[in-house]
Amino acid sequence: MNDKKYQVFISSTYTDLAEERKKILDVLFMADCIPAGMEAFVAADTEQFEVIKKVIDLCDYYVVIIGKRYGSVHPDTGKSYTEMEYDYAIELGIPVLVFAIDDNVKLASDKTEADEDKKDKLKKFRTKAMTNRLASIWASTEDLTGKLAISIMKAKTEIKRPGWQRAVDFDEASLRREIMTLKSENEQLANDLKAAREEISSLTEQNNIAFENQEIKIEYHYYEDHRTRYGSVTTDLKEIFKVIATEMMDVSITENSIEETIKTKFYSGDYSVYLNDSQFVKKILNQFRALNLIKSSWSKDNKKLFWGLTSKGCKVRDDLILIRN
Q1: Do 30 and 114 sit in the same domain of this protein?
Q2: Which range marks the domain in which residue 18 is found?
Q3: C-alpha distance from residue 6 to each of 39, 164, 200 (Å)
Q4: What single-letter DSSP state applies at residue 68?
Q5: For residues 287 and 237, is the Cβ–Cβ distance under 8 A?
Q6: What is the CA radius of gyration of the chain?
Q7: Tell me: the pLDDT tens digits for 82-128?
Q8: DSSP β-bridge partners for residue 62
Q9: How far apart are CA 309 and CA 315, in angstroms?
């Protein structure tokens, strides 16, 4: 004997199909199913849709009733909430049962779409949904409920789903294994939390950075009147880091960008300058990486190496540039 009950999400536009949904509820209860979706989710907004997605996650089957209204449209996606629910169920691989009203059925004006843009979207949604294997056309409420009853029983037989059953039906060994798994996961989370707290604690402590008193000479050359001119600027690693880190506000940048930043900051002349040491920027970056202030990442899309701040680097940067009372 199968004591499982299957949760079924009912999706449709609201006011125009209220009577049909009431009848559908009765059919699902008689088929030992647990209806979900329905009047509990009347409001249409982004926050509500996130709640609806969590309900769909727990459902065994998804039923969409398509009438002649498209429904409220999400401002970001341009889709109705009904179509978004349908797409989400398809994405999860939940068996979908589609019931679309016959185009020849005449309905009152308040049950039909007047907006031309929505009419077009409804037509496209209907065409997409009707490609589903479990799709039917209905012409009346009685026709709809009859076809739904047959389809849901067929789906339960042909498409096995987890369903819901009373907790007493689970064997004790399975419950013990699940408890041990949850205990292990809890211990791992506790260790992760401890590590995170230690990292936060280290970031709030004063950072004694070794580069503070190390002087650096930036030697460069430029061309003037067909002659090569040479020059240099003396600074320290702390100033160089402050310049670079300020450019890394929530972004990663390339080595070339870092070199241009250094030249722009420490040279104020009118000519394009070139660093005498072609490896100068690499040496600086290596020093900062050794101090755990910066990190690199390779971009497959751009085929370039990007440099950004570590958590420690962000803290040191803020200590250097924030204006304090």
Answers
A1: yes
A2: 6-169
A3: 19, 6, 46
A4: B
A5: yes
A6: 32
A7: 999 999 999 999 999 999 999 999 999 989 999 999 999 999 999 99
A8: 9, 96
A9: 9
DSSP state string for 223-265: EETTEEEEEEEEEEHHHHHHHHHHHTSS--EEHHHHHHHHHHH
pLDDT in tens, 7-33: 999 999 988 998 898 899 889 988 889
Helix pair 81-92, 116-129: axis angle to 10 deg: 20
Sequence-distant (6+) residues with CB within 8 A of 254 are 304, 305, 306, 307
Tell me the three state secondary structure of residue 58.
Answer: coil
CA atoms within 13 A on the CB side of 115: 9
Query: Contacts for 49-57 with beta carbons within 8 Å, 24 or more apart?
Result: 49/74, 49/81, 49/84, 49/85, 52/81, 52/85, 53/88, 55/9, 56/9, 56/85, 56/88, 56/89, 56/92, 56/94, 57/92
**Which residue in the block uniquely carries the two structure tokens 């329905």?**
38
Q: Are 241 and 297 contained in the same domain?
A: yes
Using DSSP bridges, classify how beta strands 6-12 and 61-66 pair: parallel, antiparallel or unpaired. Answer: parallel
Give the domain CATH number at 272: 1.10.10.10
Bridge-partner residues for 235, per DSSP?
A: 216
Residues 162 and 274 in one domain: no
Please name the amino acid found at residue 250: D
User: Which DSSP category does 270 fall into?
Assistant: S
Token readout for 66 is: 């398509």
Number of other residues whose CB lies within 10 A of the CB of residue 122 = 23
Domain-terminating residue out of 169, 194, 224: 169
